[in-house]
Specification:
Layout (H helix, E strand, L loop, with lengths): L3 E9 L4 H18 L3 E8 L5 E8 L2 H19 L2 E8 L4 H6 L4 E5 L9
Parallel strand pairs: 4-5
Antiparallel strand pairs: 1-3, 1-4, 2-3
Length: 117
C-alpha cells in the first residue's frame, strides 16, 4: 500500500483551545494552499475540547514529508500548547521514518482488507 494514513492525537493544554483552533485553521489553509499529495486532513475534537484527532491520508511517503515541511512552523506552535502522539498505517519510507524520529509514533503495517496494494 503506497498510501499512508495517519491519526494524530493532540492533547490540548487547559485554557489553550482558542489558540489551538486558530493554529488548526492555519494548518488547514496551508495544506489547501501548498500540499499536493494530501488526500485527507480533517480535525475532530472530543466533547470537552481537551483532545483533537487529526485524520490524515497521503498518496505516499513523499507527500507526507511535503506536508511536514509545509506545516512545520505551525506544528511547532501547536506542540507548544499540546502533546502529540501518532499512529501511522502503511509502509513509510526510511526518510519519513527518520523525519518522525523522536516523536511518539506507533507504526502499523497493512494486513488484509479492501485497500489497494
Amino acid at each position: 500500500m503506497k498510501e499512508l494514513k495517519v491519526n494524530a492525537r493532540l492533547r490540548i493544554q487547559p485554557g489553550k483551545i482558542d489558540e489551538f483552533k486558530k493554529l488548526a485553521d492555519a494548518c488547514v489553509e496551508m495544506v489547501k494552499l501548498k500540499d499536493k499529495g494530501t488526500i485527507q486532513y480533517d480535525w475532530f475534537y472530543n466533547e470537552g475540547k481537551s483532545e483533537c484527532i487529526v485524520r490524515e491520508c497521503y498518496v505516499n511517503s513523499e507527500a507526507a514529508l511535503e506536508h511536514i515541511s509545509n506545516v512545520g512552523e505551525l506544528l511547532g506552535e501547536l506542540l507548544a500548547i499540546s502533546e502529540i502522539s501518532l499512529e501511522v498505517y502503511g509502509s513509510p519510507s526510511q526518510t519519513l521514518l527518520n523525519a518522525l524520529e523522536g516523536f511518539d509514533v506507533t507504526y502499523y503495517e497493512y494486513g488484509v482488507g479492501l485497500a489497494t496494494i
